[in-house]
């Protein structure tokens, strides 16, 4: 029986509640029969009475309560219904949670689950990939699992980090991405990127739902052109594993960074900047980035597909990169 991405998150939440009495869940409609907008917490309120709590419809209040609880010794896991609305708690996240340790020496052990990214019909208010926005603040970790195993292990690792963690869960992966199991013998630590596919002709750096698209593009390119493309899954954008990125570029000489976020000031721009600053001598061609269009995200499924990078557009960009 296969395990989905959302199954792995549900299992991690169950085990965290079971293993540590300081852990509790707080968010909009996460208790009772509803179990959250995406059912990640379904059944947990009954199993752990008083520790899965419905919040007001106020992201600012959700994060503020979580900060207070963390300072009191608890380990809150907060759920934003959509990462887009997480921006309403941005002041609490960046100015309070992220900066608190630097001001006082007191850690804020807080995990914010953020359903992010686009799905067909989601439109501009429920589809944004805002990893770079949250990563901009010092003191915040931003994790971006792209596999079923990472959805499970990285959520459990996030709660063990004494700092505030923004855990970006891609909605498209929730039920589409499946694996035989969410358990593996040697999970990577937070902050370490993964070579998802070794290669020699170009490096494609991706994270979140762009990793499966990059892997599909690599299969397509090998089948049609004979190109062997190395795909690097960042796994987290802050901390960012620059060493693994540079080692990959050293093997291939070419770099394409793929992100579902808007292009201006995004994660892709940060990766390109770091490679240009620290590994320019490794490149045989200019580094490229491929992001979503710099427009609000469209509702229509066909327009949505055209708006974000796909395996076909990634393959086209790689062909151009190799031609340079």
UniProtKB/TrEMBL annotation:
<keyword id="KW-0560">Oxidoreductase</keyword>
<keyword id="KW-0786">Thiamine pyrophosphate</keyword>
<dbReference type="InterPro" id="IPR005475">
    <property type="entry name" value="Transketolase-like_Pyr-bd"/>
</dbReference>
<feature type="domain" description="Transketolase-like pyrimidine-binding">
    <location>
        <begin position="3"/>
        <end position="176"/>
    </location>
</feature>
<protein>
    <submittedName>
        <fullName>Alpha-ketoacid dehydrogenase subunit beta</fullName>
    </submittedName>
</protein>
<dbReference type="InterPro" id="IPR029061">
    <property type="entry name" value="THDP-binding"/>
</dbReference>
<dbReference type="Pfam" id="PF02779">
    <property type="entry name" value="Transket_pyr"/>
</dbReference>
<dbReference type="InterPro" id="IPR033248">
    <property type="entry name" value="Transketolase_C"/>
</dbReference>
<dbReference type="InterPro" id="IPR009014">
    <property type="entry name" value="Transketo_C/PFOR_II"/>
</dbReference>
<dbReference type="GO" id="GO:0016491">
    <property type="term" value="F:oxidoreductase activity"/>
</dbReference>
<dbReference type="Pfam" id="PF02780">
    <property type="entry name" value="Transketolase_C"/>
</dbReference>
């Amino acid at each position: 029986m296969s395990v989905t991405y959302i199954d792995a998150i549900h299992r991690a939440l169950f085990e965290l509640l079971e293993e540590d009495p300081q852990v509790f869940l707080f968010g909009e409609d996460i208790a009772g029969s509803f179990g959250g907008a995406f059912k990640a917490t379904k059944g947990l309120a009954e199993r752990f009475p008083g520790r899965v709590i419905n919040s007001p419809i106020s992201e600012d209040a959700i994060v503020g309560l979580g900060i207070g609880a963390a300072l009191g010794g608890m380990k809150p896991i907060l759920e934003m219904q959509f990462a887009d609305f997480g921006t309403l708690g941005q002041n609490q996240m960046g100015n309070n949670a992220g900066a608190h340790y630097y001001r006082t020496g007191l850690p804020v052990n807080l995990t914010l689950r953020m359903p992010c990214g686009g799905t067909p019909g989601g439109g501009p208010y429920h589809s944004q990939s805002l990893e770079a926005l949250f990563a901009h603040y010092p003191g915040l970790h931003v994790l971006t699992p792209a596999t079923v195993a990472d959805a499970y292990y990285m959520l459990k690792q996030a709660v063990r980090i004494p700092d505030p963690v923004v855990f970006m869960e891609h909605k498209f992966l929730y039920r589409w991405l499946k694996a035989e199991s969410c358990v593996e013998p040697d999970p990577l630590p937070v902050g370490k990127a993964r070579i998802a596919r070794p290669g020699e002709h170009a490096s494609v750096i991706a994270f979140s739902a762009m990793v499966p698209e990059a892997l599909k593009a690599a299969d397509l390119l090998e089948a049609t052109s004979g190109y062997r493309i190395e795909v690097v899954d960042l796994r987290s954008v802050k901390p960012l594993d620059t060493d693994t990125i540079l080692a990959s570029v050293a093997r291939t000489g070419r770099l394409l960074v793929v992100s579902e976020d808007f292009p201006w000031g995004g994660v892709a721009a940060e990766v390109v900047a770091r490679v240009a600053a620290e590994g320019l001598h490794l490149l045989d061609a200019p580094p490229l980035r491929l992001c979503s269009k710099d427009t609000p995200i469209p509702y229509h499924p066909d327009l949505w597909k055209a708006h974000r990078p796909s395996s076909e557009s990634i393959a086209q960009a790689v062909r151009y990169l190799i031609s340079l």
